[in-house]
Write a structure and sequence with these properties.
Layout: H1 3-16, H2 24-30, H3 35-46, H4 50-57, H5 59-67, H6 69-78, E1 92-96, H7 99-104, E2 110-116, E3 123-128, E4 131-137, H8 143-153, E5 158-161, H9 163-174, E6 184-188, H10 192-202, E7 210-211, H11 212-218, H12 225-233, E8 246-247, H13 260-275
Parallel strand pairs: 1-6, 2-5, 7-8
Antiparallel strand pairs: 2-3, 3-4
Helix pairs in contact: 1-13, 2-3, 4-5, 4-13, 6-11, 10-12, 11-12
């Protein structure tokens, strides 16, 4: 088991046992490490302490849901405004495939793909010269299946394995010390309605939540909550197009293409990252 697998297994364990508030020693034992070594490893790869992650997963997440109630009520007015979202510090730009490009079915387009280990699980990433076109969790769907779907979506394109060409998409997520002024482009194909929904998702501020029905209202189609849900489920780029920020009107998590446990993990990681933008020096170390 490598370090990334240990971290993912530990977060899976904390998600599954959140109600019991497992101690550091219990989580460390689950991945066969000492508490001291596990604490240092977790902080190195996740950027926060296991305790902070567990807080975000449970009590802090509950507070966040309550604090988000006003956002849910106002989402129809705030969608489309990027000022409050740290995601836009990266200048994320969604570029849709044109009708002409769709008709050509990817002819003449070279797509690089690769699989990268992350604290949240292995991610399959594919990029065209115009941006990221696919990102998905390999533990939920095999890399071969994701590659097959990509080939079906871009049947006349040239696919080649090149992890060096796709690594930037993952590093931009987990390395916040990079160039914040660099533009990150997403290159997607979908119906006009799907693309409108994905654009709306990009405007939900990091660490905040929105409901399917309020996204439908924001798009001017208040009766289209089910269609919004289908478009969210068809999101081709996990995390960067943040479908994990969409919940049910009741406050329940709702579904997630990569599994509800993964959705909870991503939400907790994102919230903890947001709250720890200026961590205390001792926050990731055990005092003796």
């Amino acid at each position: 088991m490598n370090d990334y697998e240990r971290i993912e297994k530990a977060m899976d364990y904390m998600v599954a046992h959140a109600a019991a508030q497992p101690k550091l020693e219990a989580v460390a034992a689950h991945v066969h490490l000492s508490a001291f070594h596990f604490q240092r490893l977790f902080c190195r790869y996740v950027g926060i302490s296991p305790k902070r992650f567990l807080q975000a997963l449970t009590l802090e997440r509950g507070k966040q849901l309550m604090a988000s109630s006003s956002s849910l009520l106002d989402i129809a007015h705030t969608l489309g405004l990027s000022g409050g979202s740290r995601l836009y510090d990266h200048f994320v730009q969604l570029d849709a495939v044109t009708p002409g490009e769709h008709k050509r079915q990817g002819q003449g387009v070279e797509i690089a793909y690769g699989v990268h280990a992350t604290p949240l699980g292995s991610l399959f990433v594919a990029v065209t010269p115009r941006g990221i076109c696919r990102m998905g969790f390999v533990d939920a769907t095999s890399a071969d299946e994701l590659l097959a779907r990509l080939a079906k979506e871009w049947p006349l394109s040239t696919l080649h394995h090149d992890p060096d060409a796709t690594r930037f998409a993952v590093e931009a997520l987990f390395n916040r010390s990079g160039d914040a002024s660099a533009t990150l482009s997403l290159h997607v194909t979908g119906t006009n309605f799907q693309i409108a929904v994905w654009r709306a998702l990009l405007t939900i501020p990091e660490g905040q939540l929105a409901s399917y029905s309020h996204i439908a209202q924001a798009l001017g189609t208040p009766k289209s909550s089910r269609a919004v849900g289908n478009a969210v489920g068809a999101n081709p780029i996990a995390i960067w197009i943040p479908c994990h920020r969409v919940i049910q009107q009741s406050g329940a998590l709702g579904g997630y293409r990569w599994g509800v446990a993964k959705k909870q993990m991503v939400q907790a990681w994102e919230l903890a990252q947001l709250k720890d933008t200026a961590p205390k020096p001792e926050s990731c170390f055990i005092r003796h």
